[in-house]
Amino acid sequence: MFISLAEEGEGRTGNESSFAKDVVLAGRDANECDIAFDRQQFPMVSRKHGAFHWMNGIWYIEDLGSSYGTFLNGERVTYPRELEPGSVVQFGENGPKIRVISFEPGRKAEPVPAAAPPPEPAGNVPEPPPSAWDSAPKVQVSVPPAVAQKQPQAGTALEFVSDSSRPAFQIKSASVWLGRDPSCDVVFDASSATVSRRHAEVRLENGQLLIADNNSFNGTLVNGQRISGVRPLASGDEVQLGSGGPIIRVHAGAAMPPQPPSSPQFRAEDTG
């Protein structure tokens, strides 16, 4: 896969840069970012501001928890947004703009065309005599149309392995944020020192459950391995928020074990 991008400014498009990778980082950190902006010229750009990433044949733009936001064609990005050639991404209000020139998407499954009906027979052909089947009463079966899955399967949940007193979190939306910030869907106590304010996001894309680290300070681990970018999740996977931090077990569309009564207090993780 590849994507070609160019800086946009004052009615002109600058030099193109092409990237043959599935994640292209943009921000002020020249050591980490593929597209680096000058700090003095663009103070509204965060160190790791946003990411162009490729998944399942589609290119997306995602904000990485920046202070001043990421915008796609003038609209603020609050979740990964699909890109098209000609899309304009802006990093922060009045910040630098990047235009998507072209990319090579993956192939999407094409619908299978319906078989053509057989041709009408030429001439007058006598109809066959009625059979016993023709005289039998007909039963019409109504088949409901298939509906694309937009929500997690029933029973999809996050089990708090490190805190057995905490009830499992039932995932009922396509995006679940984990962190210490009260705005997160799954909030950890401030004493959980390894957990960032908005640490990671669990989301559903094209029927697949995913985990994305939000440029957290201590990182996100899946089954003991630190991840970068986006990682698919399967039932039974264990997600840890920072080395030595709280551990969450994924239950994807499966029945959960009995849960203990809810408690208003969450036990602090032992990071020592």
List keywords for this structure.
single chain, 272 residues, mainly beta, Tumour Suppressor Smad4, six-stranded antiparallel beta sheet, 1 helix, disordered C terminus
Please identify the structural class as seen in this structure.
mainly beta
State the major sheet.
6 strands, antiparallel
> Based on the structure, what is the oligomeric state of the protein chains?
single chain
- What is the name of the CATH topology of the largest domain? Tumour Suppressor Smad4
What percentage of residues falls in helices of 4 or more residues? under 10%
Low-confidence segments:
107-112, 141-150, 254-272
How does the overall form come out from the CA principal axes? globular
Amino-to-carboxy terminus distance? 43 Å
Describe, in plain words, how this protein is organized in 3D.
The protein is mostly beta strands. The chain folds into two domains: 2-104, Tumour Suppressor Smad4, CATH 2.60.200.20; 156-252, Tumour Suppressor Smad4. Helices cover 1% and strands 35% of the residues. A six-stranded antiparallel sheet has the order 2-1-11-10-7-8, with no helix packed on it. The chain has a six-stranded antiparallel sheet with strand order 13-12-22-21-18-19, with no helix packed on it. The protein has a five-stranded mixed sheet with strand order 4-3-5-6-9, with no helix packed on it. Strand 1 and strand 2 form a beta hairpin. The model is unreliable at 107-112, 141-150 and 254-272 (pLDDT under 50).
